[in-house]
Amino acid sequence: MKNYFYPDDFRKLPIANISEAEQQIFVVLVDKIMAITKEESYLIDKRQQEQVGIYKKEIDQLVYGLYGLTEEEIAMVEKEIGGK
Using CB atoms within 10 A as the burial measure, which of 15, 43, 44, 75 is most buried? Predict the structure, then answer.
């Protein structure tokens, strides 16, 4: 079964309203990920790949917090997106 997502479906998505100051932690983490993944060595350097994974998990946890997800809801989300 394929999932389809249409442009009008975006209107149904809840978007957390946070200040620019609250957004800064996301900006910092994404900048760190981008800096690491731009390195030529990234594809072969396991340490760099692990660090990116840590940053991604930090972002995930921040997003879960924004939406007030319970542990049960987090488990469901992570199962759906690939069992982190």
Answer: 75
Which residue segment(s) compose the domain that 70 sits in? 20-80
| Among candidate residues 26, 28, 31, the one with its CA nearest the CA of residue 62 | 26
Residue by residue, pLDDT tens for the chain (84 residues) are 577 778 887 788 888 999 999 999 999 999 999 999 999 999 999 999 999 999 999 999 999 999 999 999 999 999 988 754
Give the total number of structural domains in the chain: 1
Q: Kindly report whether the global pTM for this prediction surpasses the value 0.90.
A: no
Tell me the three state secondary structure of residue 53: helix
